[in-house]
Structures are given as structure tokens and as C-alpha cells.
Amino acid sequence: MDLSLSDEQKQLQESAERFVREKYTFENRRKIAATERGWLLENWAQFAELGWLAIPFSEDDGGIGFGSIGTMIVMEQFGKGLVLEPFLPTVVLGGGLIASAGSKAQKEALLAPMIEGKKQFALAWLERQSRYNLADISLKATKEGAGWSLSGHKGVVYNAASADQIIVLARTAGSAREDKGLTLFVVDGKAKGLSRRDYPTQDAFRASELTFDKVSVGADAVLGKVDAAFPVVEDSVDRAIVALCAEATGCMDAINAATLEYIKTRKQFGVPIGKFQVLQHRMVDCFTNAQEARSMTLMASLKIDDKDGIVRRKAASGAKVQIGKSGKFCGQSAVQMHGGMGVTDELSVSHYFKRLTMIDMMFGNQQHHLTRYSNLAMAA
Amino acid sequence: MDLALKPEHKTFADEVRDFARKNLSPATKAKTFSGKHYDRDDHMVWQQALGKKGWLAYTWPKKYGGPGWDITQRFLFENVLAEESAPRIIPFGVKMVGPVIYTFATDEQKERFLPGIRSSSVSWCQGYSEPGAGSDLANLRTRAKRDGDHYIVNGQKTWTSSAHWADWIFCLVRTNTEAKPQEGISFLLIDMKTPGITVRPIIMLDGAHHVNDVFFDNVRVPVANCIGKENEGWTCAKFLLANERLGIAEVPASKRGVRTLRSISEDPSLAEKIADVDLQVQALEMSELRALSAMAAGGAPGPEVSTLKVRGSEIQQRIAELAMEAVGEYAAPYQPGMLFQDTNETPVGPDHAPPAAPRYFNMRKTSIYGGSTEIQKNIVSKMVLGL
Amino acid sequence: MDLAFTAEERKFADDVRAFVKANLPADVREKVKNGKHLGRDDYMRWQQALGRNGWLVYTWPKKHGGPGFTPSQRYIFENVCAEEYAPGIIPFGTKMVGPVIYTFGNDEQKAKYLPAIRESTTWWCQGYSEPGSGSDLASLRTKAEKEGDHYIVNGSKTWNTMGHWADWIFCLVRTDPKVKPQEGISFLLIDMKTPGITVKPIIMADGGHEVNEVFFDNVKVPVANLVGKENEGWTCAKFLLANERLGIAAVPQSKRGVEALKDIARIEQDNGRPLIENKSFAEKIADLEIQVTALEYTELRVLSTMAHGGQPGPEVSGLKIRGSEIQQRISELAMEAVGEYAAPYLPGLLWQGSNEEPVGPEYAHLAAPRYFNARKTTIYGGSNEIQKGIISKMVLGL
Q1: Is A122-230 CATH 2.40.110.10?
Q2: Quick one: pLDDT at residue B339?
Q3: CB-based contact (8 Å) between A378 and chain B?
Q4: Do residues B344 and B314 both lie within one domain?
Q5: What residues of C are in contact with residue A353 (Cβ under 8 Å)?
Q6: H or E stretch including C188?
Q7: What ipTM does the predicted assembly reach?
């Protein structure tokens, strides 16, 4: 048992920290969010150059084998700067799915260029009725000659507008909400019959609604086995959850630091408001919440590679519950302690608050994961 | 970074488990499971067995007769013992006064007191709080006046756990009334058999007798029993409090508590509440491991361990609350015989029902003792956040 | 003690409902129902309709042109309006400056200002907070110096709600900088068209513009616009704040909010069933509903005390605390209900009334902005920390 970072990991942390410090000041982020793409190609090129796009992948897959701890380290720094580049959809989700389910040819065609910074991905799984059930999928893929034809709707697909390929979770057999009968397809972002409605999200990321109208793909578009995608997607989403948790710990550190600074300097009744015990204790609770979030994220990052699927799922859900709870506490408290300034667009605090709020909503909120964890723990 | 255990650690865990199974009496284990009160023998028999094995003072360095374990071994030891339903080790000797003695005392004092602590042949209690000095500990007024090679001690200590079982008490006393409150305090060891000491039970809201008032009426204590320098006892006091806060989170016992909850609860609506506290325990455990890992790398326990105490006590309270919720209306019958004596009385409702409510009432103390939650937050606010 | 309404009161409820159905413009009703933002004109059309019926200033005594409702009638009026999706009445004229004027103003001032408040022909806004004076209101520094029969006002006010729509502003200004903070403050009415006033928008976390900073640069205000005595404005200020706290609990709106939340939970799907059948979610709504009921009965008890001649005491601070927490919780659960569909941010639809199609149902894209925006409720009108400070001191004597 050892919970300290290796020298290599420390270097990674320092370089991610430097990137955020130099490229992601609050004003800079505002500008990046307002660009057409919503993130910067030059930053992405820098990620590629620094080797960050290779972090989670094994050396066999062309990666650098830093694993989940590597992902945790960069995501945490991204959280501190509210980084907008699509690391999660492209590297963690897209790259992760291709690495775990892709054929040799798919890895060569997709993963290798992604690691070089030349490809963007998106995962399209959610539908209007799905809520947080990964098996509640009705977009249909039907056999069409040697290939398939996809028709249906996907919602809130992050990074779809920038994605060269969209990985689509479709129903190829079985009835609604059955976990058997789901298949993953790699669909070209510009495929005929695929239309998009793009929009920004509350926290300044980009997402889209996708409509598939008889989109034709070849047999080689299938990622993994036909009808057997569910466990692959579940595992990949669990990894994305752990990465999000790391991002959230970074957000919490930043929002707590901003709040601490504010209550030390803002004066009312002739003293800094941080002299009032109500605020002091609330600030301590924020600090404790962030500690717990960091602890659970670390636990999950260490366990997400476990051989036992139950251990992995419990780890992801457990961390997500903590992040939901702590994120809400730190976010709401930061706004409250900033007073009116906290509810304006002018300070960073509302932006961290919005991101923390949206992180809770992604891939299942606190309640969803508490239920999932509880069921897993009862079954064990 | 790695959570996995090395093979030698697995062997170690097996050895501890084996030891616990051979040395813990079934009656003691049953009390742990149902949440009944232990008597003095439950503790002493078990602690002396550990002492014989050299494991009682498991947090001590080798130099002072501890086993010199690394953090993984400590972690495993605590967890395996909790899993095996061992009573917790009474902290006053091993975790409180022992480290103060080996850190601040003279060689003579070390030789005199440490062996009895390691073997649990001497039992200790703590004389810190007073009626007028609770959260504001430095306000204490128990007076020790020098009289030749003795101190004459007069005053009162309160909330003294296990004083009615103890052979010795370590006390904070005022040796200088003129200086600032923190600067006139000394750390004194007092034999409980010394004439002039009276112990008065305080009965708690669940009917239990754990704690006492201890009165000192012209009690003569040799100057040789003063640890560290006269008037510098506050240093010992702070050192002890910081150590106390670390173990006080009681993570292994809470882990066991969660397992017990799952085994007694048939109500599906409780399942998510149990899951929630389960996750709180995990977060606390990881936070404690991170702190221990930092300490292993050479750091001392910092003021942020205060947050462990805060959460640890909340979790203990929550577990007790859920155990009471699990038994529903069967929490109501009050059966003191079953709680405090080994009567053959049949419980009303399930076995674990009679202690449920008393335990819940009793556990309210955890956010009050060892520095209340409010005090802990003040410490973090000042020392960590700089407010 | 009786919870039941009399036949008369039931008749009154029917009258109010008939009035709202006949007079609330359909488009305004739709906006309120869907939780959309309202424009100045939306408020004005409804408030003027109420004004014509004598009901806009429903809390005022008969003597000053109010309808002289009993506490039961007030309760019925507020609840029926909320149930029928009427917009909340903007409080600055009717609930804030109006009562200050009829309590502390002279006859001339009453005659000049009250009719337009009753009819909603002038829009009022509030000039209390300043950048350096939030919770510590008495430290305010906007200065009013006497020069002949005018004051010259210099300084700035912030968190000024809807000042960009306002005709008049009531301000706390410092007229004596030498005495104790509370003793040198005056209560001044200022025409927003006076030269030297600039209104600068503050953009909120949800991207909306509802509050402003207001700057005063040598603004000339007639001495006749002073309400009460010079340097005694703090009395008006405290009176107004106590009144403000009462309505601020927004119980009828929260009752409506809980119903709207249930409607959302009936539409949203969870594993192929309506979300409202999800036990955990249903219990959260139940918990909220019980909190609303507790708040409602506490408010009724306060109203009953007032009906028997008592004044609203500092314990109404408790209503504000709970009321604001409940408003936040409703918005939080609505967001939870829509799940990932809370993410799309559609500012055009939110703020400019564009015709773009929402992503998902209308309520989905409004959920997160409403949640973000509702964080203000525990901050404004005296933050909850300040309210607890008041209760601790004034009620508990700590």
C-alpha cells in the first residue's frame, strides 16, 4: 500500500498545473468558450505534444501506460482551470472504448491518429427517455446488406460538433431497456442522414442533439461484438465517471481557494467576514468535503482497474456519490459566502459552481449512484 | 500509488486473525456484535493477551517496546481486530499517556511506567476536563502546590472515563496561577490509591456508568511524577490531543458497524441509508490513509486531522442512529439488566434491540468529547485556513 | 381556532379566481406556467388590471386605498393568484416604499405617490445595497448634501433589481457622516430620469440581466422628496426590511412550485416508468411538501397574531430563512428531474424570447438557470446568516 505519487507522476502533475496556470486564466477561458469551436486546436496540439492524449493507454496500444492515476492527475488540474478541451469524450470515452473493444484495424485507423491529436470523438448513448439507464436505448440499427442502417435520436452528445467519429450505442436486438442486444457503431461525423443541433451547455461546453435518418455504415463500423456492447459501455462510462470525479476535486479546490480568499478580504461590520464563526465553520466543512472527494477519487482511480467488475462498479458509484454531495456543498457554500457576487457571471465562483452542478448530472447523479452502490453492496 | 497488499502483509493479516480467534472470548465477541457494554475483565483479559504478544502498544516505535510496524501493518491490525469483534483498546495508557511519557519523560520515568502500559497490568485514566474547563481546557483550576519534594493537589476533574477501573490518572494541573492560562500548567501522574482521591460516578443518559467526577483533597504527589518541565505541561497536552484525534475517527469499528447494520436490517428502505454511511466510512478511511501515508513520508499529524475526528464522530452517531431505526418500535423497551449485567433475561424483540436506543443516546458524546466538533472546526479554521 | 373557511371566504375565493381568469393575459399566464422570464409589460398589464380592481395593494389598510383584507382574505388572494399562474407582484412599490410612505410620509407625499403605486402606473426600484455595504447596510456611503432646497446625491447602489425598468428609486443616503452609522441616514425618493443617474447591468450566473449598479453623479433631488425626518431614515429602513421579510417566504409560489415539480416528474421517464414512481424521488418531493406545509402554518400563525393587533416581530426572519431554502430546493429537484437534459444552454430562448425550439421540453432548459438563479434567495433581503443573527439577538437574547 502506497499513496504517494512517483516522480514521473509528479512531473505530469506539474506540467498539467503549468498548462492551466498559463493558458486558463479566468478571462482566457471566457474567450476560449466564446470561440466557434468552444475550445482551441492549439491547446489540443499541445496536449498531443506533451503526450497527454496517450496517458490512459497501454504501450501495446501506442500509449504511455500511465493508467487511471495518470488520467486522474491531468483531470484534476483541468478541473482547477475549467479546461474546455474535449479530453473526456475524445480520450477517456472514445479512445477508451476503441482500446477496450476495437479490432487491430480500428485501433490503427482511429486510436493511433487520436493519440497524435488528429482525431476527435464523441460517445452518443443518451436518449430522451434514458435518464441514467445505459440500457434504455431505442435507436435502432438494422441489417442492410453487409452493413447496417441506423435510425433514431441521441441527446446531449458532448463534443459531437467537433467529432470526426461518433460512437453510437444502438439497439440491434431485444426489447427496450434490455442490456442484451446493444451494439456500438463508429459513425462518421459527416455521415449522410445524420443531422445535428448544436448548442452550448450551462457550463460552457458544447453538445448536440443528433438525428439518425437511415444512416448507412459498413460491417467494419461495429465496435466490439454485435449485441454485446453493454458491459463494454458500462465499464467505459465508469472510467469516465472516475475521470470526472478527478475534475470535480480540482474544481472544489479552486472554488474553496477563491472563497477562502474572499472571506479573508471582504469586510463588513468593520472586519473581514471570515472572522464570523458561522462562516469559519462553513469554510471548514467545505475543506472537509473537498478532502473526502479527493480521498474517494483516489480510491476509485486505484480500484477502477481491478479484475473484479463489482469492485470497479462500486468504486465508480461510490466516488460519484461523494463528488455529487461534496460538489454541491462546496458550490452552494461558495456562492452563499460570496453573497451577491456569487450569483453573478463576473467572478469565477459561479462558473465553478455551474461545472460542479453539471458534473453531478452526468452519467448518473448522486441519488442514482447511491442506489446503484446500495444494490451492488447488498448483492455482494 | 498502490492499494494492493504484498504477500508478507497478507501473511501478517492471517497471523493477526488467528491470534484474535484464539484469544478473544466468545462472550466478549457477542457483546461487541450486539452493542452491549463490556466489563473491566472483557478489556483486561484481551489487552493482557495482546500485551503478552507484544502487540498492545502497536503504534509505538521499537525503541520503546512497540512492534515498529509500518502503516500497512497498523492498518491491517486495526481492521482485522475490528472484523473479529475485538473490543477497542482503551486508549488512555497506550495511545495517550504512553507516547507522552516516551516523548517528554526522563529515562527513569520511562522505565517505571512504560512496561505496565505495554502489558496492560496497569490501567490509566485521563484527568483533563474540569467543571469550568471543557472546550476551554486551558482554563483549568485544579491546583498543584509545591511542598518540598511533593505537590499538594486540590481540585476536581470531570468526564473521567474508567476512573473507577483505573490504577493511575494523568492530570493537567495548575502550578502557576500568575502566568497566562497555558503557561502555568503541568502534566502530573497520580496513583489513584493516594489518600484524598474520591471517585463519584456520573450516570449517563442511557443509564451507563462510564465516566466519573474525580475529587482531589490535599493529595500528595511526588515531584518525580511530573512529566516534562513544571509549567510546560501544555506542550504535552497538545501533543496528546493531536494523537488522540487521529485514532478517534474509529474507522475499523465503523466498518464493522456498517456490516452489522446490513446483517440486522431487513428493511429495503434502509439499504440506501446504509450505503450512504458505508461510503462516508470509505471516504474517511482513505483520508486517514492519506494522512498516515504523509506521516510515513516524514510529516507529523497536522491540524487537518481534526476533520477526521469530526467526520468519524458523525459516522459513529449515524451508525447508531440507523441501528435504532432498524429495530423500529422495538427500540423502546428499556432492559438495563441486559445492557450492563450478564443476566439471562430474554430480550424483548431481537437480541440487538435492547442496546440500540441506549447506544444511540450514548453516541451523542462522540461529537462532544476529545474536543467538540465546534472546537475542532475552530482549530482547522485557524491553523489550516488561516481565518 | 378554525382551519375551515367560512361561506363568505369561499365566495371570496371564487371571486378572486373568476377575476384572475378574466383578467390575466393568456400569454403572461403561459410564461408563468412554464417558468419563463417576464418582461416589464407582462408585469404591468397584470398589475394594472389588479390596480383597476383595487387589489394591487392588497396588504394596505382601507384608509390608504387598500381593500382592507382580513388575514384569511390575504391568504386566499395570494394562493388563488399563485394557483392561477399570476406573476408575483413586484414588491418595490406596493410592499416596500408604499407602506413607508403611508406610515412616515407627509400628506402631500401621500397624495403624490400612493395613487400611482396603487394603479401601477409608476415602476419603483430599491436603492439600498452598495458595493461596500451588503449585509452591513448601515455602513452605506452614498452621500446627499443639502444645497438650498435640493440634495446633491453622489455614490452608487448595487443589486438594484429591475432598475432598468424603473421610473423611481427609493434610496438610503448618508446625510450626516459625523454621527454613528445608523444615525446619519435619510430615506429619499428619486426620479430615475434625473440627470446624473446611470444604470449599468450586472449579468447573473444564469446569463440573465435582472440587477444593476446605479451610479449617482451630482444628482439634484428636491428636499421635498425626503420621507420622514432627515437623518432618521434608518427607522424607515428597518420598517421596510421587516415588511419585506414577511412576503419574501413566497409560500403560495412554493406550493405552486411543488405542483409544477410533480407535473415534471410525471412526464420524465425513469426505467420506462414516470419518474414520480421512483421511490427515492417521490420521497424527496414528499419531504419538500412537508416543509412547505410547516412554513405555511408558521406564516398563518404570524398573520393571525397580526390580525389581533400584533406587529410582525423578528421571528419572521425564520420565515425568510425557510422560505428561501424551500425555493432553492424546488429548483434543485426540478433540475434533478430533467437529468442530463438540464445541460443545454439556450440563452436566446431564455432571454430574448426567440422562436427557437427548446431541446427537450420547455421546462428542461429552464431548470438549471432557475436553480443557479435561486441561489440568490438565501442572500438577498438580508442573507440567511444575517437573519439568524437577528433571531439570535432579538428573539433568543443571545
Answers
A1: yes
A2: 77
A3: yes
A4: yes
A5: 205, 372, 375
A6: strand C185-191
A7: 0.89
